[in-house]
Amino acid sequence: MIPTVEYIQKRFDEFNVRYFGGQLPPVPVKLSHAKGFLGKMCYTRRKQGLFRGYKNEDFQLRINVRIDLPETVVEDTILHEMIHYFIAYNNYHDTSTHGQLFRREMDRINAEGAHHITISHRLNEAEQAQAHLHKGRIVALVHFEDGQTGVKVVPKQIKHILYWHKAALRHFPIDAINWYYTDDGYFAKYPSSIALRVFLISDPAELPLTNAHRLIVTDRQVRLQVNPRNNLRW
User: Fold this and answer.
1) Proportion of the chain above pLDDT 70, given as a percent
2) What whole-number distance in Å separates Cα of residue 183 and Cα of residue 66?
3) Is the domain of 123 the same as that of 141?
4) Same domain, yes or no, for 193 and 144?
5) How far apart are CA 17 and CA 194, in angstroms?
6) Are strands 137-144 and 174-182 parallel, antiparallel or unpaired?
7) What angle do CA 33, 34, 38 make, to 5 degrees?
8) 29-32 and 54-64 as β-strands: parallel, antiparallel, unpaired?
């Protein structure tokens, strides 16, 4: 599943009552497409005065939506970060990032709720493939003057988009190029390059581009038109 902010907040509230006695304040949730983590509890550590030590503030829960994972893994990721929140919010001292206190809370919640929270979650081969499948891609839908239509996937860098757009208009008899930014796994089968090669398709209407963001490309500029139905970020 790809969790939404509403789903994460709902699970946070349920887990807060069940495992933390409802003592954890609500925390802002941000969806992430970063490659390095499944979840992260971010906060600022501020010094309170010369002799008053530090206080942790400005908490934010980040959950990765780059990968389509089983719901149980998403739940365990949320709980993992809630343990970090529990420790940091109460300013408890642990022996390390995943030290004795973290492990004690992890074991308690796993036992009480039959969860499978771990110290770190390494992606298996299927999950790694899923991450590749749903990564953001720049797709050009090329309409030729003879009525044919083709697909081209271009690297995400602005300079590559501008280069391919101008080069294709010079090289091919093109009527129009429509640009999209999408994470639909359908386009994983097309190689990403700046080579002047286009893959012809029989029916453009069948392409899964309804939820894609649009790109407005000119000779010198690429402008993103965000589709509110898609939380994919640049």
Assistant:
1) 91
2) 9
3) no
4) yes
5) 52
6) antiparallel
7) 90
8) parallel
Token reading at 95: 């022996």
- Residue 40 and residue 25 share a domain: yes
Using DSSP's 3-state secondary structure scheme, residue 179 falls into strand
Model pLDDT for residues 18-72, shown as the tens digit of each residue: 999 999 999 999 998 776 688 999 999 887 766 667 888 899 999 988 777 888 8
- By residue count, the chain amounts to 234
218 shares its domain with 169: yes
* Residue 230 falls inside a structural domain: no
29 and 54 belong to one structural domain:
yes
Contact 158, 148 (CB under 8 A): no
Q: What is the pLDDT of residues 176-201, one digit of tens each?
A: 999 999 988 889 889 999 999 999 99
Query: Which has the closest alpha carbon to 3: 31, 26, 40, 41?
Result: 31
Q: In degrees rounded to 5, what are phi and psi of residue 112? A: -70, -35
More confident residue, 225 or 34: 225
